[in-house]
Specification:
The structure is a single chain. The chain is α/β, with parallel strands linked by helices and 301 residues long. It is built from eight helices and 16 strands. Helix 3 links the parallel strand 6 and strand 7. Helix 4 crosses helix 5. The radius of gyration is 20 Å and the shape is globular. Bound molecules: ribose-5-phosphate. Ribose-5-phosphate binds next to strand 13 and helix 6.
Amino acid sequence: MPPLLLPLFDPAGLAPRMTDMLRANSLLFELRRFPDGETYFRADTDVNDRDIILLAALDHPDEKIAPLLFAADSLKDLGARSLTLAAPYLPYMRQDKQFRPGEAITSRTFAHLVSQRFDKLVTIDPHLHRYRLLSDIYTCETRKLTAGPLLAQWISENVKPPFVLMGPDSESRQWVEEVASPINADFIILEKTRHGDRNVEISTVKAPSVPDLTPILVDDTISTATTMCTAVHQIIDAGYSPPICCAVHGIFSGTAYEDLITAGATRIITTNSVAHECNEIDIGVLLANALGKNGKEKQLV
Ligand code: R5P
């Protein structure tokens, strides 16, 4: 039997093409809120003995966690054979230790909630920093994908050399290296000290080594854009032209997108792991390929 794909949260509209590539069937469902704000979920397709892929864009997760858990429990109760969570963006990865006494380590709690219900998690560029592997906290099967080669492809097709990649902090090294490798790009990693949600310091940048060098900032996530804005200022102060900003996941809390443009970014590019007007890179094929079984999925397009 083909898998069933349930696009619980899919503002980027990934589901139709993924359903086609996976030769899956659509799982019809109803999700709404009761007048008191509680969640109502109903599967409108027979799920008994079926393998289910639940697609959920999990940025701004708190409003989505309850529906996610209710849907998962209900599908298992209705006889689903297996449940895979396809979460292009995996939330709650950055609170990976107690930075101050008494803080909740929410990454563990979220991992527990997901692992209890899903057989498998497939995600893209999760923020692995103090955790080395997803399996450090997730007990279900996990598969980590990277959008690095897709970002590299976008750069090689859209940015005229010479360019240099820049990571705003040591954590970004892993993503910068993945983008730099396929296109043999030079890169520089800056140093960041975080003092608060919207207060970071970034080390000064050396002046450009060659004229007309385009700087390209690369990071996994833009949230408040404080990191990127601070890095943009340092790069411009060092004598570079205004940079292009690339991230896998563009969450853009509040006015983050506008703030980054005001800071001086010439272009802001993200994947559609989180739906936004600056999505220029599609991760649908990457996700579908990872979810396909035994090569039965259609060829890459
Ligand atoms: C954390 O180190 C991440 O790699 C990003 O640099 C961070 O999440 C960006 O957050 P913000 O946009 O709020 O500075």
